[in-house]
């Protein structure tokens, strides 16, 4: 018995396998082949583990001694190592070591006192669950750089690059004989911080909004026989990344209000700033990754935290997709569209076949384009794509135009699963008076469904009045015919359905501003008084430039007064006010800025005259400007004024309308005054 105690567990199983093979009559050849195979897997595992440790050691050195590592590269002539777009914040990094041991103690207290009890209460199988070692280690996180964006509307936008490669160690005792653990964690991500809205009184900032621009990279080492099984470690990493994505990867956000008057809902789940309609046409001479000079290519499209995959085209390096996608754009700042191409394999990791990265700024500046692009990071391969840049509008009278443009696009890209012309943003705030089940408050999760699009809220633990405050958006093919179906489930009792709610989107579409906030009854619920509070908004998607210059779509009524003195030949012009009746469609979160009246007399007497720009968002401004122009009496009858109303949206000048005013009427009197409304079209 003492011999078996000294044998490692793996060797014990090998001995048992030898015995079973012999007893079953198998030849030694089969056994030797199997033994070589098992030993090869062990050697491969040790090599992979050694590579992981070496890689982690290098990352840890960068995290702790970045200056030394950068200096080594510069000494080798790597003059490209610069950080032009980001500010260095070493003073913040110097604070982390001073706080780290206090943070370590706080985390340990939370895990042992709160988390441990909650895990034990989940199931009787976990009644012996406990934490063993809990330490954050000595290595601290680093902030590699901070970038602050300028010219943002009523907000301060900051991007923070966070990097951590530390000796964190946490062990868990699931049962008396089973212990697992996690150590050597690497984390890298870009966190966006938005301070908005800016106030004119303390605290000067209405709220702080936090989210990652894309899913952070996470790598970790696991300990324990169970976690060392093939695929378990990567599964744990994927689960962690999925949970982070659901909570705070855009469009999901964490909002910390600083002023009670701030509309948290608008900050937590804003509408996309735009929508991209992308047509994946075909690939040309892609890399051959399989036998016979063939591949099974597919494309992964990612931008603004949104990710979607194309169909797999089997057995070709010249795939034809003709597949259309509709992609929400959450932010224009530092945004890119990334198309990554892979060769699909059933039994091994999919091979990369190149990628294409395009800036959203360049895409929006060419609102309708079809072109062929060379793939990056590979020796060969091109891709043909088509895109249309769509803006969001609440102008329901443009529904026919939206459908017409939608049909034109998807008639070409007929392999598309969905053909939307609108988008709905649904914020599920809270619910009331759900019943208890077996004398226990339910843990409720809501799933929202529009056609085949399904999204789920987080789970509100043990509450009959759950509060979610989460927003989700769905694409719509026809707002007048569709609805949102919401199903409430109790996760503690086998996902038992507690009730359902259906939101008729035609009601929202026909409401003022295409917006409805109200409570809906929960049907099929034990308690008929149960309700859910929703905030729902619909916007149409209209092709065109981000800020279209639709001169004839806008009309402005301008009130202008004029006096003319024939003796001195002096014309006084005083614009009084303007009333904007209509403006071009603009992005949901943008405002009309710097609206003004521009006046240009005929001839070359003077340059253009401009009124004082109106305040941001002001569509019916008033002015006190007075302009004086010299026009000789003999020319006044043949002269005219060109009047133009302009404004600025997204840094682009938009012409709202113009007209020409003849001045012949001013020549009929020695001192005539005219005050009149003029329509600008």
Q: Can you describe what's shown?
A:
The protein is an alpha+beta fold and 681 residues long. Helix content is 22%, strand content 41%. It contains 12 helices and 31 strands. Strands 8, 11, 14, 15, 16, 19, 22 and 23 form an 8-stranded antiparallel β-sheet that branches. Strands 1, 2, 3, 4, 5, 6 and 7 form a 7-stranded antiparallel β-sheet that branches. A 4-stranded antiparallel β-sheet has the order 10-9-12-13. A hairpin with a 6-residue loop joins strand 2 and strand 3 (156-175).
Name the poorly predicted regions. 1-9, 76-80, 545-554
The largest β sheet comes out as: 8 strands, antiparallel
pLDDT averaged residue by residue: 80
N- and C-termini, Cα separation? 99 Å
How many helices does DSSP assign?
Answer: 12
Helix percent reads 10-25%
Shape estimate: globular
Total strands: 31
How much is the radius of gyration in Å? 33 Å
Which structural class matches the secondary elements? alpha+beta
How much of the sequence is in beta strands? Answer: 35-45%
């Amino acid at each position: 018995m003492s011999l078996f105690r000294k044998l490692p567990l793996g060797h014990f199983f090998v001995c048992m396998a030898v015995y079973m093979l012999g007893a079953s009559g198998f030849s030694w050849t089969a056994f030797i082949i199997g033994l070589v195979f098992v030993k090869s897997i062990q050697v491969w595992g040790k090599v992979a583990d050694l590579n992981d440790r070496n890689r982690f050691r290098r990352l840890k050195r960068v995290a702790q001694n970045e200056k030394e590592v950068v200096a080594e590269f510069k000494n080798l002539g790597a003059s490209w190592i610069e950080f032009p777009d980001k500010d260095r914040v070493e003073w913040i990094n110097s604070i982390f070591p001073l706080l780290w041991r206090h943070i370590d103690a706080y985390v340990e207290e939370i895990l042992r006192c709160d988390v441990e009890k909650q895990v034990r209460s989940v199931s009787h199988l976990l009644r012996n669950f406990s934490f063993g070692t809990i330490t954050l280690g000595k290595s601290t996180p680093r902030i590699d750089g901070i970038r602050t964006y300028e010219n943002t509307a009523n907000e301060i936008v900051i991007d923070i690059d966070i990097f951590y490669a530390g000796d964190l160690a946490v062990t868990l005792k699931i049962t008396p004989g089973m212990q697992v653990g996690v150590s050597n964690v690497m984390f890298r991500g870009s966190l966006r911080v938005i301070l908005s809205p800016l106030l004119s009184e303390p605290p000067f900032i209405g709220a702080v909004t936090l989210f990652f621009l894309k899913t952070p990279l996470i790598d970790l080492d696991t300990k324990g026989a169970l976690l060392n099984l093939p695929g378990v470690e990567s599964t744990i990493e994927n689960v962690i990344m999925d949970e982070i994505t659901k909570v705070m990867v855009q469009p999901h956000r964490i909002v910390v209000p600083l002023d009670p008057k701030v509309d948290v809902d608008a900050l937590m789940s804003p509408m996309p700033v735009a929508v991209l309609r992308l047509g994946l046409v075909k690939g040309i001479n892609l890399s051959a990754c399989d036998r016979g000079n063939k591949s099974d290519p597919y494309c992964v499209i990612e931008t603004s935290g949104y990710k979607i995959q194309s169909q797999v085209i089997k057995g070709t390096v010249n795939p034809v997709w003709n597949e259309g996608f509709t992609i929400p754009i959450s932010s224009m700042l530092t945004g890119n569209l990334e198309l990554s191409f892979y060769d699909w394999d059933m039994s091994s990791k999919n091979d990369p076949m190149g990628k294409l990265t395009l800036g959203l700024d360049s895409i929006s500046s060419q609102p309708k384009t079809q072109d062929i692009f060379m793939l990056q990071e590979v020796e060969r391969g091109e891709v043909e794509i088509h895109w249309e840049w769509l803006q969001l509008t609440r102008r329901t009278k443009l529904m026919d135009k939206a459908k017409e443009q939608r049909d034109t696009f998807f008639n070409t890209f007929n392999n598309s699963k969905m053909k939307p012309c609108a988008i709905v943003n649904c914020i599920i705030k809270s619910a009331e008076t759900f019943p208890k089940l077996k004398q226990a408050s339910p843990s409720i999760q809501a799933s929202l469904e529009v056609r085949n699009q399904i999204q789920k809220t987080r789970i509100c633990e043990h509450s009959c009045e759950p509060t979610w405050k989460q927003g989700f958006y769905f694409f719509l093919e026809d707002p007048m015919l569709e609805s949102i179906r919401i199903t409430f489930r109790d996760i503690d009792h086998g996902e038992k359905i507690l009730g359902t709610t259906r939101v008729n989107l035609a009601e929202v579409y026909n409401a003022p501003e295409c917006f409805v906030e109200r409570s809906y009854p929960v049907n099929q619920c034990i308690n008929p008084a149960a309700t859910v509070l929703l905030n729902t908004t619909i916007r149409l998607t209209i092709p065109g430039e981000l800020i279209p210059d639709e001169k004839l779509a806008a009309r402005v009524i301008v009130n202008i007064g004029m006096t003319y003195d024939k003796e001195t030949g002096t014309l006084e012009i005083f614009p009084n006010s303007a009333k904007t009746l209509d403006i071009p469609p603009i992005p949901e979160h943008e405002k009309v800025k710097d609206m003004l009246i521009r006046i240009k007399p005929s001839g070359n007497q003077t340059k253009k005259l401009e009124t004082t720009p109106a305040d941001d968002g002001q569509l019916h401004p008033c002015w006190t400007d007075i302009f004086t122009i010299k026009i000789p009496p003999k020319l006044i009858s043949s002269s005219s004024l060109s009047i133009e109303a302009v404004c600025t949206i997204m840094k682009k000048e938009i012409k709202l309308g113009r007209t020409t005013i003849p001045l012949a009427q001013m020549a009929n009197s020695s001192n005539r005054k005219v005050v009149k409304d003029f329509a600008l079209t």
